[in-house]
Specification:
With 581 residues, the chain is mainly alpha-helical. Helices cover 43% and strands 7% of the residues.
Length: 581
């Protein structure tokens, strides 16, 4: 069955109507706002003349500055209104299936085979339409786990493109071949969680995974070398794990060697109906993962799943913040558009970057774009697509395979070797989860980690010269800066994760800074897939959505620099196309 469907309206609202209303409102207030601003500016200028401001304020400079600041904001806002409001298209499953099997319902009450209570789901839809906290408080839960921050999808921002002016393609239908093929990949990722990335070409599990996936249209051409990798050209080059996740770094006064406490191997969750149904109803507590006390480098899918399970404790953009520190510590060359680049490249000779175009600027920008990316993706999750999580799809597979129900699933998943291997191992057809609680309590599409990764990766690309060879960076660093000890050694984790070993692939010289930034973004997104809680579509569209958010913020800021010779950052997007922003 094709996943191309008619175009049902977004249940949240008519974006065309709300956009027209917003434009009318802006037109009405523009004149009044200008008068109010002028009045405020005159008052500010009078205060400055009473020796409370700078010399420039004595001749009206402060008034001019306020008006210039206001005009910058107005121009940025006007530019954003010229961005068309897209029609948000869903896959139609919410209208197609009265029992709502194709949509997210985790945490609401479910019957014995995991079908949501329809009246509870309709109250969720009502809350989406109303868009108020009071309406969401009326949604009945099946347990004690709350819905995660749905109203953040309606929040406005004062910088960058509004979340409702950004759109992603519709999510594949529950009955489509596309979603079935992605489910096959997820079942294989669960079976291969404990296989070291260095063993992919030889381990029977990954060889079997590549063999089956390569027969599916979605994954044609996949090999053991490219198995479970991202969609950018750089993802296929070099080791699986980005060097920016393995490199040691100085974190202020702390030295970080890159090793972490991982989860113990061969321990998966939600493989029986009782525990699976408990999680679907949101009936916590769910228990905790067992931690291996021996710190290790990221060596397999389970290790990466651990990393993206615990990273919210330190902030979701921690990965890219750390990557920025690594690149700056190693003295990575600045983006060609940075006016403070090396003097030999046309930069300044007597000035250094800091609050603009410097390390604090780029590290701080990651927090800015990450929060805006989350608002954009939460809009897509709750107010447009409401896509089901893989664990819920696994329940549909189990109920169909055991004859408890008949669901319109594509034959690619029902006939999958991966599904049969899962049954042989666990005695059920549920998708094995890496976390006891499964996914978070919000819809699947697009991926929050992916949107954050796409946004923060774009800021890193604005920071450095992406074409620079990674091996040309200094091989080691000290407390005071980089030490030139020759070409950087490209490394990968050993099979047991206790050490780093040199990567000997012939493509090591092809690895660039942009390549490792792209790979880092894919690693983070696909790590959530290794956990069994997201689809490949979630990660891929999340990256692109986050990229769009970051580019819009950089664009809004581009006119705000005074006296600096800035003509735009040169950035290569995830699809390989260059842009200047």
């Amino acid at each position: 069955m094709s996943d191309v469907v008619p175009r049902p309206e977004c249940v949240a609202c008519s974006f065309e109507d709300s956009s027209a209303t917003r434009r009318e409102f802006l037109t009405r207030i523009r004149g009044a706002a200008t008068l109010a601003l002028a009045s405020t500016a005159v008052t500010f200028g009078s205060s400055a003349k009473a020796d409370q401001g700078s010399r420039a304020s004595n001749d009206g400079g402060s008034v001019d500055r306020v008006l210039d600041s206001y005009q910058n904001r107005v121009q940025a806002a006007r530019a954003e209104t010229r961005i068309a409001v897209p029609r948000q298209i869903t896959n139609g499953d919410e209208q197609r299936y009265p029992n709502f099997i194709g949509n997210f319902s985790k945490g609401l009450p479910h019957n014995a085979i995991g079908e949501v209570d329809q009246s509870a789901y309709r109250l969720l839809l009502n809350a989406v339409r109303e868009g108020t906290a009071a309406a969401f408080e009326q949604v009945p839960l099946g347990g004690n786990t709350p819905l995660v921050n749905p109203l953040s999808g309606l929040a406005f921002d004062l910088e960058g493109t509004d979340s409702h002016q950004l759109a992603i393609p519709h999510f594949p239908s529950v009955a489509s071949q596309t979603l079935a093929d992605q489910a096959v990949e997820l079942y294989w990722q669960a079976l291969c969680r404990d296989v070291s990335f260095t063993e992919y070409p030889s381990d029977p599990r990954t060889v079997a995974a590549a063999s089956e996936l390569s027969t599916l249209p979605t994954y044609a051409g996949v090999t053991a070398q490219t198995l479970f990798r991202g969609f950018t050209a750089d993802d296929a080059i070099g080791p699986y794990v980005s060097q920016l996740s393995l490199s040691p770094m100085n974190y202020g006064p702390y030295f970080m060697n890159g090793r972490m406490s991982m989860y113990v191997p061969n321990l998966d969750y939600m493989t029986d109906q009782a525990s699976w149904l408990q999680v679907q109803n949101g009936q916590g507590p769910f228990g905790q993962n067992t931690v291996d006390p021996q710190p290790r480098y990221i060596r397999n899918g389970r290790d990466y799943a651990m990393f993206v399970h615990t990273d919210p404790l330190a902030g979701l953009f921690m990965t890219f913040y750390n990557a920025g520190i690594i690149l700056f510590e190693k003295g990575a060359p600045l983006n060609p558009g940075n006016p403070y680049r090396a003097a030999a490249e046309g930069g300044y000779t007597k000035q250094a970057a800091f609050a603009t175009f410097g390390v604090p600027f780029f590290l701080g920008m990651m927090g800015e774009v990450a929060t805006r990316a989350f608002k954009a993706v939460w809009c897509a999750k709750w107010f447009v697509h409401r896509a089901l999580r893989p664990e819920a799809f696994g329940g549909l597979v189990h109920m169909t395979m055991t004859g408890r129900a008949t669901y319109p699933l594509h034959r690619h998943i029902l006939n999958s070797h991966a599904v049969k291997h899962v049954f042989s191992k666990y005695g059920s057809y549920f998708l094995p989860q890496a976390f006891p609680e499964g996914s978070p309590q919000h819809p699947s599409y697009a991926q929050g980690h992916g949107s954050m990764a796409g946004a923060c990766a774009t800021i890193l690309k604005a920071a450095v010269d992406g074409s620079f060879p990674y091996r040309a960076l200094p091989n080691s660093i000290t407390r005071t800066g980089p030490v030139d000890t020759g070409a950087t050694t490209i490394v990968t984790a050993s099979r047991d994760g206790l050490s780093l070993v040199p990567y000997t692939g012939a493509d090591a010289d092809q690895i660039t800074l942009n390549g490792e930034i792209n790979k880092l973004a894919s690693n983070i997104g696909l790590a959530r897939d290794f956990a069994g809680i997201h689809w490949r579509s979630d990660y891929a569209q999340g990256l692109l959505l986050g990229e769009a958010v970051a580019l819009s913020v950089l664009s809004d800021q581009s006119e705000n620099y005074v006296g600096e010779n800035f003509e735009g950052f040169t950035i290569t997007k995830f699809d390989g196309t260059p842009v200047t922003v």
